[in-house]
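Predict structure. Chain length: 172.
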Amino acid sequence: MLERIWSGWRSAYVSEAPVRNVTPVPGTGVTGSVFTQLLNSGAPDTETYIVHRSATCFAVCNLFPYASGHLLVVPYREVADLEDLTPEETVDLWATVTDAVRVVRAVYRPDGLNVGLNLGRPAGGSVPDHLHVHVVPRWTGDSNFMAAISSTQNLPEALADTAAKLRAGWNP
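Prediction complete.
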């Protein structure tokens, strides 16, 4: 029989979570999605946790990971939907997602992976105007990405360490 743990606090997150799209970086006047701001920050990839750049997109560690090794593959151009991508961007995005899966498998040796998108705010997208593909390593018996106890999640590795491992895995 299926047991359920009801996480009522998630409804508040889904309905009230801030959309991370248009807040300017203080003192810079830079606007756009958090991904656009990241790209326009001028900071080195080692500080922004970008682990790979391709012709039209990049892979970056999720700042709010569901598990160590959680990557986002993001087009440079700020678009909301898959059909807004150019044919070149579409090919490059999925090639980079495939490479990200290969790298995460090689570096973390997970039992499985979640790969997916949340298109639009109702689908769970916290950055609905800039699509991004999640690549999340998963292990048998892990706690899933929905924290159910005290809104807390335990991640055994610092984000800078994750980024360094994935960057090295991408460029062996």
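Summary: DSSP finds five helices and five strands in the chain.
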